[in-house]
Amino acid sequence: MQTKLYYFPKEAAELTGLSKSTLRFYEEIGVLDKVARNKNGYRTYTQSEIDWLLIVAQLRAFDLPLKTFIGRQHSSDQLMVDYLKSYRQEIENKLSELEDTRNYVASKIAYLEERIVKKGLFVK
After folding, report:
1. How many percent of the chain have pLDDT more than 70?
2. Cα–Cα dist 103/107, whole Å
3. Radius of gyration of the chain measured on its C-alpha atoms
4. Contact 123, 115 (CB under 8 A)
5. Of 84, 14, 16, nearest to 50 (Cα)?
6. Is 94:66 a contact under the CB 8 Å cutoff?
7. Which is higher by pLDDT, 83 or 114?
């Protein structure tokens, strides 16, 4: 399948899962560089821009703040790798905290169920 040279906003929105207004907003605040326009004034997105928007959309789904992406569209691969490794470590830390919380809640449930059984009540 041949890659298109450019995509119109509707196509870009469909490919990235972002709304057309979000695409404009990302351009406005600098998450996305100034987008080229065709002779009729319509925005046209390159495959490279679509790829960048897919990365942004994926990481935004995990609550990364928008300021993280401002001006980074053309970062070197090494800078992106370093940043993503740092973010992966943050995720690992959060997972560890969640695991601790889950274990605490499980032990609390076990303790309370044991108290209920000792009192002769039934546990659902």
Report:
1. 94
2. 6
3. 23
4. no
5. 16
6. no
7. 114
Using CA atoms, how far apart are residues 72 and 64, in angstroms rounded to an integer? 14
- CA distances (Å), origin 25, targets 11, 19, 39, 52, 120: 17, 10, 22, 15, 61
Residue 44 is classified by DSSP as E
Tokens standing for residue 107: 């032990």
With contact defined as beta carbons under 8 Å apart, do 44 and 8 qualify? yes
Backbone angles phi, psi at 75, to 5 degrees: -65, 155
Name the token pair of 110: 């076990």
CA–CA dist 38, 27 (Å, integer): 16
pLDDT in the model for residue 124: 61
State the pTM of this model.
Answer: 0.69
